[in-house]
Amino acid sequence: MGLAIPALRYLVREHLRKPFDGPVLTLGRQCVYATLADVQDLMRADGLEPRPVVSDDVRTNIPSWRDGPYAHFTSDRAFWAALARLDVYALDISEYERPDFMWDLNSPIPEELIGRFGLIVDGGTIEHIFDIKQALMNINRMLRSGGRIIHMSPMSNYVEHGFYQFSPTVFFDYYGVNGFGGMGCTVADQGVGDSSFNEWYFREWNPLRPEAIVSPHPLLLVFRAEKQPSSTWETMPLQGDYGRVRKAQEAERDRLQQFGRLLGAVRASRPVELAVYGAGENGRLLVRELREIGAPVRCFVDSNERLWGQSIDGLEVISIDAAADRGVVAYAIGSLASASSISRRIRDAYQGRLAAPEIFSVQ
After folding, report:
1. Mean pLDDT value across residues 9-21
2. What is the DSSP letter of 30?
3. Among residues of the chain, what percentage have pLDDT more than 90?
4. Residue 67, SS3?
5. Which of helix, strand or coil describes residue 333?
6. Which of 97, 94, 60 is nearest to 77 (CA)?
7. For the chain, domain boundaries
8. Do domains 2-240 and 243-360 have the same CATH topology?
9. Using 50, 70 and 90 to split pLDDT, how confident is the model at 246?
10. What is the C-alpha separation between 75 and 61, in angstroms, rounded?
11. d(Cα 298, Cα 317) in Å, to the nearest integer?
12. Mean pLDDT for the stretch of residues 148-175
């Protein structure tokens, strides 16, 4: 159970997407495969100034690391303090790594842990718990309303690592049928060698268009979900939660039909390159459709400055002013409801420049 630099970077970007609220509970004390300087550098690389860390937390808090080759690495407490001054607690089945709470997640959690945490991070625990149903219900109950769960769980090529390797549907279906929101999943190809020190290669997982992923490397799924005031914990899903999936697929078909005219206009115009305005769900869907027709998509443009500099589906997210400065002169608008106002915003950004931008939208 540990956090390599790619996992730490994911957590930083998830916090930038929507700030975490504490306290944090980790399932198992998390080994951090990075120095404090590494942690601070990756935060600054994403535009986040790290917060001060008290000296007692700088050094690793993994007992077996204190005198070994990993003694120079930092602690999980230092990471969460630098990120957002969040208090972090660990739960484990044994006292080996000095957790704050000792409990076997095969058994129902005690009352004092119910609704206690704003974020729970499973950095590689539930695959080792035989009663996966009870483990998920326990995690759910320990979250308070508005809290988030993040699972980093083996998906493939982890034979004999634990009891299980997971398909994304396990998490989408359980949390979905219990009324969680904000669900998303990324698959990480962890490359050759020791995944604690490799670079990982991320790709978004679309539950409406599942695909076969063949890789000789370990594959990790990273899943997030947010508990709602009306969320339940005891409802058991059917695989695919067929009614929900069918409705979502119908909604996606409707969006694709609305994109039809836009895609036809792009085919006819054949721009040298274009940006997609809007890095949300509709924008990502539009990028996929544009790529299928061979359109040269260069980047995302979005008004949310927390996204600037991030990479989504292999495309950098930048501001409209940055796009204009880079000479982007064609835009496809992913929004179905605000295309007119976005078109005006784009044109305003290009006032006084040599060329007016070409804009493709559903309207």
Report:
1. 93
2. P
3. 53
4. coil
5. strand
6. 60
7. 2-240, 243-360
8. yes
9. low
10. 5
11. 10
12. 93
Q: Cα(220)–Cα(200) distance, rounded to whole angstroms?
A: 9
Distance CA 178, CA 103 (A): 24
**How many C-beta atoms lie closer than 10 Å to residue 260's C-beta?**
11
Mean model confidence pLDDT for the chain? 88
Cβ contacts of 209 within 8 Å, gap of 6 or more: none
Alpha helices (H) along 18-157: 36-45, 55-58, 76-84, 132-142
| From the candidate CATH numbers 3.40.50.970, 3.90.226.10, 3.40.1190.20, 3.40.50.720, the one assigned to the domain spanning 243-360 | 3.40.50.720
Under a CB-based contact definition with an 8 Å cutoff, are residues 314 and 344 in contact?
no
Strand partners, 245: none
Tokens of 347: 């044109």
φ, ψ of residue 58 in degrees (nearest 5): -65, -40
Copy the structure tokens of residue 184. Answer: 């998303």
Question: Does the pLDDT of residue 159 top 60, yes or no?
Answer: yes
> Which of 270, 281, 353 lies closest to 313 in space, CA to CA?
281
| Burial category of 131 from C-beta neighbours within 10 Å (exposed 0-12, middle 13-18, buried 19 and up) | middle
143 by DSSP, 3-state: which? strand
The pair of structure tokens assigned to 235 is: 């409802």
Q: Are 83 and 12 in contact (CB under 8 A)?
A: yes
Q: What's the CATH number for 2-240?
A: 3.40.50.150
Torsion angle (degrees, nearest 10) of CA 320, 321, 326, 328:
40
Integer angstrom CA distances of residue 291 from 46, 103, 241, 361: 27, 48, 30, 16
